Amino acid sequence: MLRNASHRPPAGRATSQAARRAVRRAARKAIRRDVRRAVRRRGPRRIACLAALLSLAAACDSADPAARRAEVAGPAGEPIVIGMDEDSSGPGASYGVPAGRTVRDAVRDINRRGGVLGRPLKLVVENDASDPTKTPSVVRKLLGEGAKAVILSTGGGSVLQAKPVLQGARVPAFAPVAISEGAVTPPNADYVFMLGNPISDFTKVYCAAMKQAGYRRLGVMTDLSPTIVALNRILLPKLRACVDVVGVEQAELGSSDVTPQVARLKRHDPDAVFVSSVGGIYEILIQNKLAEQMPGLARYSLASIGNQPGFWKVANPRALDGLAFMGALVPGNPRAEALRGFLTRERGGRFEMTAYDAQAWDSVQLIKTAIERARSLDGNRLKQELEKLRGYRPAFGQSRLTLSFAPGKHIGADGLCGLALVEFGRGNRPGGMQHGYQPQCG
């Protein structure tokens, strides 16, 4: 069983620093002595320096203990470079940016703890802007900057284009927000890893839930982003195998009105509507119109909108009420709660954690573990160590969920319990687990 150490409070290495502490105490004593003399003598130059001396004394006395430990015992030596393709300006920014921010938090935390093998991690970041044609050059640039592992905080279409570059360079990568099996299936799949359940598992859960609820006729609304087009090739055939898909309507992400599409779906008289989208303002537009034109109709959605709290307040009042989406943060997972507490302390104020945060965090921890076990930065050695990992307990999914990898198994989730159907309640906020079917660990 792989033991997690991912959610302990940041701390320096537990090595003896008695000599350095003695030096700091002596320095503080000397500063206080000079301050007292300046006050007694009141010489012009002494008084001029008083404020600076007081500031220095305060810094020595009241600096954050964790910061002092990091200064004394922080990692040294040549940095280990981790690359990140962060979709920060395209449609995928709604999930790429939150995941990317948590990757940064995880790297800082690891460095505060002493780094990896005593060396600091250095994160280098590029942006493919949700354009898969840009992804190969973005990944090559990261590799050119010395990246020994890569985090693909971008959509599935971009991950597909990254695969041959990573395969040729023999550099392992995690795709924390990807849900398409294509990311980890041949060709060129030896060096890409996913954490969460893939879209085929999503459809098992959706189908079981709709069967239990007695829904037989399904309407589908979808966008035309590269990520969703790729996902729909898997999603739609599997939905059709369990329910009668009576109509599929689609629109570009930049659409400002989906009234005609929703009106056509309504004429098909579905029992429920499924929205397949990268989320963002486009999905809010759809959900507003569905709530207006088909009030009370059961609605399902991909994970995106449930992990985008910045967009919930844009929806019309109660437009999201009753909407069920595929979640991965499940009440009762102590690692999720520990991570939530850590990120809240890091960022301050009110913080809405999402599955993107949890999977990004776990990606960094798994890369760290592979480097420590391999004691090497050779890409093939790192891949082999990742393929040996068993029983890692992540910050997402149900508390019993484990992640394991092996040659030919680059999707970490061991079973369906990395997923949960979550329902929006009043106020356009997730209100808890949906009543009815829920996937089980098993």
UniProtKB/TrEMBL annotation:
<dbReference type="Pfam" id="PF13458">
    <property type="entry name" value="Peripla_BP_6"/>
</dbReference>
<feature type="domain" description="Leucine-binding protein">
    <location>
        <begin position="79"/>
        <end position="398"/>
    </location>
</feature>
<dbReference type="InterPro" id="IPR028081">
    <property type="entry name" value="Leu-bd"/>
</dbReference>
<keyword id="KW-0029">Amino-acid transport</keyword>
<keyword id="KW-0813">Transport</keyword>
<comment type="similarity">
    <text>Belongs to the leucine-binding protein family.</text>
</comment>
<dbReference type="InterPro" id="IPR000709">
    <property type="entry name" value="Leu_Ile_Val-bd"/>
</dbReference>
<dbReference type="InterPro" id="IPR028082">
    <property type="entry name" value="Peripla_BP_I"/>
</dbReference>
<keyword id="KW-0732">Signal</keyword>
<protein>
    <submittedName>
        <fullName>ABC transporter substrate-binding protein</fullName>
    </submittedName>
</protein>
<dbReference type="InterPro" id="IPR051010">
    <property type="entry name" value="BCAA_transport"/>
</dbReference>
